[in-house]
């Protein structure tokens, strides 16, 4: 984080002027204009529900079906202590037949790598508000995307005197892209000049086999007077709407 802040704070201290200038220069890139007009996903495929033409879609199995959990009880206990899970958060390991993409009512799958990349419980409202429109569960986001997400939150807080990053600001800089491993997704910059976080690790070894299920209270930020009515995290893995049309743009 220190390296990231050292690189970006000189730019971000211009805050509003910098961001407004970026919007003015681009005004709406041809990529996003095309997607808003035609309803195309970032990969060029029609987005379900955005077109009247019925296009056959290939049904693929989630890549996560190939991965069994490699954690044991002792590792999970140390992990829970290290990342200070709230007492009312219930955590369990899957059995031999359960996979990260399996749906169990009341439970959400998380990967260890997300917490290594600084995700913490309760999940921050910004994360909940970002993932909900995409229609994906937390376990579908790739490790480096968690690092990008949490780092941008920290950068905004440091540069803008405690003001939290907004969803429309983040989605102006980054978009969701399908991974080659079906069912997983990553955050990538719309353009080279919107890349806020650099020097990301090239890989996380064995991360796909290190997952667990969470339930109970305190792993999500609750709705209330402070945060208003918050969307809940998706429990079921899904196929998201790619592109920008599901988010309002700022000008």
What do these coordinates show?
The protein has 251 residues and is of the alpha+beta class. It has one domain (2-216). The protein is built from eight helices and five strands; from the N terminus they run ααααββααααβββ. The chain has helices at residues 2-12, 15-26, 30-38, 73-82, 112-116, 125-134, 143-159, 167-173; strands spanning 89-92, 108-111, 174-178, 185-189, 211-216. The strands form two sheets. A three-stranded antiparallel sheet has the order 1-5-2. Strand 3 (174-178) and strand 4 form a beta hairpin. Helix 1 packs across helix 7. The longest helix has 17 residues, at 143-159.
Percent in helix: 25-40%
Please mark out the parts with pLDDT under 50 across 5 or more consecutive residues, or reply none.
Answer: 1-6, 9-16, 26-55, 244-251
Which sequence of SSEs, written as H and E, runs from N to C?
Answer: HHHHEEHHHHEEE
The gross shape turns out to be globular
Number of separate domains: 1
The end-to-end span amounts to 29 Å
Number of strands: 5
Return the average pLDDT rounded to an integer.
Answer: 80
Instruction: Tell me which oligomeric state these chains represent.
Output: single chain
| Beta-strand share of residues | 5-15%
Structural class: alpha+beta
Give a concise summary.
With 251 residues, the chain is of the alpha+beta class.
Key traits:
8 helices, disordered C terminus, alpha+beta, disordered N terminus, 32% helix, two-stranded antiparallel ribbon, 251 residues
Write the layout of secondary structure elements.
Layout: H1 2-12, H2 15-26, H3 30-38, H4 73-82, E1 89-92, E2 108-111, H5 112-116, H6 125-134, H7 143-159, H8 167-173, E3 174-178, E4 185-189, E5 211-216
Antiparallel strand pairs: 1-5, 2-5, 3-4
Helix pairs in contact: 1-7
């Amino acid at each position: 984080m220190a390296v990231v802040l050292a690189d970006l704070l000189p730019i971000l201290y211009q805050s509003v002027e910098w961001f407004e200038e970026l919007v003015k220069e681009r005004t709406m890139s041809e990529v996003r204009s095309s997607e808003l007009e035609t309803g195309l996903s970032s990969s060029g495929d029609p987005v379900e529900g955005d077109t009247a033409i019925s296009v056959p879609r290939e049904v693929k199995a989630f890549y996560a079906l190939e991965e069994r959990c490699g954690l044991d009880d002792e590792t999970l206990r140390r992990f829970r202590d290290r990342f200070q899970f709230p007492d009312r958060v219930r955590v369990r390991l899957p059995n031999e037949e359960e996979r990260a993409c399996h749906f169990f009512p009341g439970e959400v799958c998380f990967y260890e790598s997300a917490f290594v990349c600084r995700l913490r419980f309760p999940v921050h409202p910004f994360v909940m508000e970002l993932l909900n429109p995409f229609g994906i569960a937390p376990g579908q986001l790739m490790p480096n995307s968690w690092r990008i997400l949490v780092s941008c939150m920290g950068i905004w807080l440091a540069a803008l005197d405690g003001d939290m990053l907004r969803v429309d600001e983040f989605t102006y800089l980054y978009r969701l892209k399908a991974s080659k491993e079906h069912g997983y997704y990553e955050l990538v910059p719309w353009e080279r000049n919107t890349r806020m976080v650099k020097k990301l690790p090239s890989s996380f070894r064995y991360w796909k086999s290190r997952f667990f299920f969470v339930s109970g209270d305190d792993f999500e930020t609750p709705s209330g007077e402070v945060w208003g009515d918050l969307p809940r995290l998706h429990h079921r893995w899904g196929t998201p709407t790619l592109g920008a049309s599901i988010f309002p743009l700022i000008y």
